[in-house]
């Protein structure tokens, strides 16, 4: 045994096969080993042989157990040669191959492929390596393109290509509604839209009732959010949204998506699905405000400066009472608004809701819709303003006045505004005036009853389904802005 300054170096035999390759081509691990050992004997190499076998691993990634183990031996200067039967046993990607070869040469390790008859310690071997690597990568891309073409064709025919979503079963590559799960999907949408529960509250309720998700796991914030945003439930097929060829998935451009409307069994009506998307793009109440024991926490805005109103206490130690005060006044003194007694403000709010409920009629809604600055007009103005602002940013970028990061930030802002307001616009166009009036009236009545009988925390969940914000000008002077979408 040699000392540490001159460690023993081995010949590494690396073999790999993926399950589908072995079934398709009969490329067995035993055959690879025998061929490589016979080559060593024929070459008269006296070094001891070490085996590194990756069974059932694809060449698409270099993150393989035995390949990683081989790298550790190389870093410790314990390998003189690395042998494979064919180039693609090591990797099918030229970039990965060159990266590995660079590391081999850094540690004076030659790379030998017996089928292609080359050794990377020679210039001709390195040239051959690059040529063959390019050919291997080209062939892999051709196979990938053929697979994608087949998947595109199936997707355009409405065939489902992956595991069925919760609420459906898969029969002959077509989705069919599985009612025991579909009823839970409808309930989740109702809990979120009509009862004001958030993702966590919905997940917690389903878990407490012992209702498992598709994979028999507990529900989570992510699984609830994915369910509420999945267009499959309104009958829309969407495929090819993400690029999964790399470790980190990336959202593709809209133009590459396959979107087919009204081709799948419907669990959630389009109107309800659109309303859920509109709500998800808004953030009416901050998470902390939702759990506040004060009725208007998170909803109340200052009539002087528009800042949020926070809760506080006032009065003597023996006669303390709750107050709402402007956050801008409290934190930095930039607003001159006074504080308001919370009980008075909340009482005025309930009175205002009762008046809205009593005065709401079919006569008011058409008048509201016919105004020049109607909700539809406001939505159009917001969309157009976002487009114009982005257009100006593009011109500024072209002129070299701003960086690309500024332009991308503006694009994200524009897309967010378009998504939110387009969903609202669809709702206004689809709902008849009578139906809109009935929805608002029923919501107000339900909300008033809930506030009277439920704990404040539970009543606030329903409050967020109807009230967009409340602006206070005085303890008995409030503006209540409804969220009718």
UniProtKB/TrEMBL annotation:
InterPro entries: DNA_bind_recomb_sf, DNA_bind_recombinase_dom, Recombinase_CS, Resolv_N, Resolvase-like_N_sf, SSR_resolvase, Zn_ribbon_recom_dom. Gene3D superfamilies: Putative Large Serine Recombinase, Chain B, Domain 2, Resolvase, N-terminal catalytic domain. It holds the Pfam family Zn_ribbon_recom. SMART domains: Resolvase. Keywords: DNA integration, DNA recombination, DNA-binding. GO terms for molecular function: DNA binding; DNA strand exchange activity. The keyword DNA-binding applies. GO terms for biological process: DNA integration. Residues 10-158 form the Resolvase/invertase-type recombinase catalytic domain. This is Resolvase. It comes from Paenibacillus selenitireducens. The lineage of its organism: Bacteria, Bacillati, Bacillota, Bacilli, Bacillales.
């Amino acid at each position: 045994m040699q000392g540490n300054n001159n460690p023993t170096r081995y010949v590494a035999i690396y073999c790999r096969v993926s399950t589908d390759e072995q079934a398709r081509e009969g490329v067995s691990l035993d055959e690879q080993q025998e061929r490589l050992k016979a080559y060593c004997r024929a070459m008269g190499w006296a070094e001891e042989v070490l085996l590194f076998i990756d069974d059932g691993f694809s060449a698409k990634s270099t993150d393989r157990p035995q390949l990683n183990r081989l790298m550790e031996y190389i870093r410790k200067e314990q390998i003189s040669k690395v042998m494979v039967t064919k180039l693609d046993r090591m990797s099918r990607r030229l970039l990965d191959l060159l990266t590995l070869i660079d590391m081999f040469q850094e540690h004076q390790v030659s790379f030998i492929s017996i089928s292609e008859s080359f050794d990377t310690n020679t210039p001709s071997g390195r040239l051959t390596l690059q040529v063959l690597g390019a050919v291997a990568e080209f062939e892999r891309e051709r196979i990938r393109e053929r697979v994608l073409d087949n998947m595109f064709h199936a997707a355009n025919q409405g065939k489902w290509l992956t595991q069925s979503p919760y609420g459906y079963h898969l029969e002959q590559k077509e989705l069919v509604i599985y009612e025991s799960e579909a009823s839970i999907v409808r309930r989740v949408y109702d809990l979120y839209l009509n009862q004001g529960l958030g993702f966590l509250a919905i997940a917690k309720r389903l878990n407490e009732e012992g209702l498992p998700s598709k994979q028999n796991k507990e529900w989570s914030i992510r699984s609830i959010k994915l369910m509420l945003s999945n267009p499959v439930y309104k009958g829309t097929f969407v495929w090819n949204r993400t690029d999964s060829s790399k470790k980190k998935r990336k959202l593709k451009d809209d133009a590459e998506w396959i979107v087919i409307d009204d081709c799948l069994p419907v669990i959630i009506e389009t109107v309800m699905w659109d309303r859920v998307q509109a709500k998800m793009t808004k953030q009416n109440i901050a998470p902390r405000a939702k759990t506040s024991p004060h009725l208007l926490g998170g909803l109340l805005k200052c009539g002087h400066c528009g800042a949020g109103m926070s809760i506080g206490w006032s009065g003597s130690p023996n006669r303390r009472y709750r107050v709402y005060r402007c956050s801008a006044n409290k934190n930095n003194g930039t607003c001159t608004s006074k504080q308001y007694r919370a009980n008075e403000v909340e009482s005025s709010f309930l009175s205002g809701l009762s008046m809205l409920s009593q005065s709401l009629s079919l006569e008011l809604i058409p008048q509201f819709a016919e105004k020049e600055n109607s909700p539809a007009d406001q939505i159009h103005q917001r969309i157009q303003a976002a487009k114009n602002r982005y257009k100006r940013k593009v011109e500024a970028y072209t002129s070299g006045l701003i960086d690309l990061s500024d332009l991308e930030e503006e694009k994200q802002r524009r897309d967010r505004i378009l998504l939110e307001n387009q969903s609202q616009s669809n709702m206004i166009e689809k709902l008849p005036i009578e139906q809109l009036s009935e929805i608002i009236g029923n919501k107000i009545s339900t909300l008033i009853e809930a506030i009277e009988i439920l704990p404040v925390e539970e009543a606030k969940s329903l409050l967020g389904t109807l009230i967009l914000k409340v602006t206070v000008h005085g303890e008995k002077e409030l503006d209540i802005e409804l969220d009718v979408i």
